[in-house]
């Protein structure tokens, strides 16, 4: 069972690249972030043509998450974490979608970026991480096979970025969000990519600016966290780096884990 995460950075703009990746790599489950479309604009029929069924949680112009499953429809468990946006009176943003696929709990998330730091957006990011941790604790208590995955907007350690100095002031690198991420791991969740690449140097994102892709100036912010029931089944995990280099690609690239049945 192959489970993948892919921040697509606009599903309409990247649809040809997304369909290409799905057909070439055929993940069992594909979790998407930043679909950037309202619910009625989601192109579900395009995925059905190649055998994928989807559920999605959209929002106009930004955010938005979706879960695609090969040959079966994801069974929705929960959408949202019941936390309002950083501005007073702002409703909940479309950042979390949870489902069950083939007996595995899939928790797809697009964690707030948190810039500029400091400020209300960074405070919202930390509050969101606390809400996520509480939800993860509930799932843990159920003792079900689970994968919590998506764009966490956290660079966990200095080994996960091309230049710690260049990113030092960014919200992705701040001690507070790094500490919050470490608390997920201390609770017993396994970072799949880090476990198999303990020396780091694995990137999942390259900015469109300043020739970042061509110079390999990237960092790792897309993560897959495994419960004990899934960590015991992990046989491989990796990054589909080549898809970042294709025409009109997302600035992220797919990240995946393979589990024994």
TrEMBL record:
Query: What cofactor(s) does the depicted protein rely on?
Result: Mg(2+)
Q: Where is the Endonuclease/exonuclease/phosphatase domain?
A: 4-252
**Keywords assigned:** Hydrolase, Magnesium, Metal-binding
Q: Does the keyword Nucleotide-binding apply?
A: no
Q: Which PROSITE patterns match?
A: AP_NUCLEASE_F1_4 (PS51435)
- What Pfam families does this protein map onto? Exo_endo_phos
- Whether Metal-binding counts among this entry's keywords is yes
- NCBIfam families, alphabetized: exoDNase_III, xth
Sequence similarity? Belongs to the DNA repair enzymes AP/ExoA family.
What protein does this entry describe? Exodeoxyribonuclease III
Native species: Qipengyuania aurantiaca
């Amino acid at each position: 069972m192959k489970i993948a995460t892919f921040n697509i950075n606009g599903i309409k703009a990247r649809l040809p690249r997304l369909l290409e990746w799905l057909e070439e790599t055929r993940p069992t489950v594909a979790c998407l972030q930043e679909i950037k479309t309202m619910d009625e604009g989601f192109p579900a029929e395009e995925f059905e043509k190649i055998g994928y069924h989807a559920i999605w949680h959209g929002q106009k112009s930004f955010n938005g998450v979706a879960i695609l499953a090969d040959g079966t429809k994801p069974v929705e468990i929960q959408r949202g974490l019941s936390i309002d946006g950083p501005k007073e009176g702002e409703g909940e943003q479309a950042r979390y979608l949870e489902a069950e696929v083939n007996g595995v709990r899939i928790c797809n998330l697009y964690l707030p970026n948190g810039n500029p730091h400091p400020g209300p957006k960074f405070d919202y990011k930390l509050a969101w991480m606390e809400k996520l941790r509480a939800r993860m604790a509930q799932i843990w208590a159920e003792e079900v096979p689970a994968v919590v995955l998506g764009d966490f907007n956290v660079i966990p350690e200095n080994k996960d970025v091309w230049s710690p100095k260049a990113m030092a002031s960014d919200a992705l690198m701040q001690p507070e969000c790094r500490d919050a991420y470490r608390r997920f791991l201390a609770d017993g969740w396994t970072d799949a990519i880090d476990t198999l690449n303990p020396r780091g140097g694995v990137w999942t994102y390259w900015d469109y600016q300043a020739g970042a892709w061509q110079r390999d100036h990237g960092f790792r912010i897309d993560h897959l966290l495994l419960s004990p029931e899934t960590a015991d089944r992990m046989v491989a995990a990796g990054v589909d780096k080549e898809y970042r280099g294709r025409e009109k690609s997302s600035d992220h690239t797919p990240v995946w884990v393979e589990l024994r049945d």
